[in-house]
Specification:
single chain, mainly beta, 10-stranded antiparallel beta sheet, 3-stranded antiparallel beta sheet, 1 helix, 15 strands, globular
Length: 181
């Protein structure tokens, strides 16, 4: 077992929610696409989730083995800038995953991945369409954010947001909620 991570999960990415998760680094190495994640949301249905409640992991690594990039499109100001074949030519540090849509195929998996760049001056966002034969997600279960506690928000987080009063002239965007300044 990897010394840094206590949980190693294979081919269970459908039980992980990557929306708004921060990816400190994305790179290709040894026939593997590697996502070094700051955190992720482990869904209650995940077979390796001992709590039966969704929770945030600490630092995590996701590896897609034997990947083939079907499409990599980079955007600036919502316009397609460039389509490239080698993602190592792009600085994929400090990104946010907006969406990770995975489907099973006859010989592995396919995924559409939407990313936002935080500090890349050339590009704002990216779409990666990729196929791969196996996925591995690793995290340290002892570093979960809500270990042995109830989640501080109600079960329906949107009901919490709906009850927040926002005054447009004083509103400031602070992801993921609008809050008064």
């Amino acid at each position: 077992m990897n010394e840094k991570f206590s949980v190693i999960s294979e081919n269970n990415l459908k039980y992980i929610d990557f929306h708004d998760c921060e990816c400190s680094r994305l790179y290709y190495e040894n026939y593997t696409l590697v996502f070094e994640m700051d955190w992720m949301e482990v869904l209650s249905e995940h077979p390796m989730n001992p709590r039966n409640k969704a929770h945030q992991s600490g630092e995590e690594m996701v590896m897609l083995q034997l990947p083939t990039i079907e499409q990599l499109v980079l955007y600036k100001n919502n316009s397609e800038i460039i389509s490239v074949n080698d993602l190592n030519n792009v600085d994929f540090r400090d990104t946010i995953l907006l969406q990770y849509d995975e489907s099973k195929t006859n010989d592995g998996y396919k995924a559409k991945i939407y990313l936002l760049f935080n500090n890349n001056k050339e590009f704002d966002s990216a779409l990666i369409e990729i196929s791969y034969n196996k996925s591995v997600a690793m995290w340290d279960d002892e570093l979960t954010v809500y270990k042995d506690k109830e989640h501080p928000l109600p079960a329906d987080a949107w009901s919490f947001v709906d009850n927040v009063k926002i005054m447009t002239k004083d509103a400031h965007i602070f992801a993921p909620l609008l809050v008064l300044r």
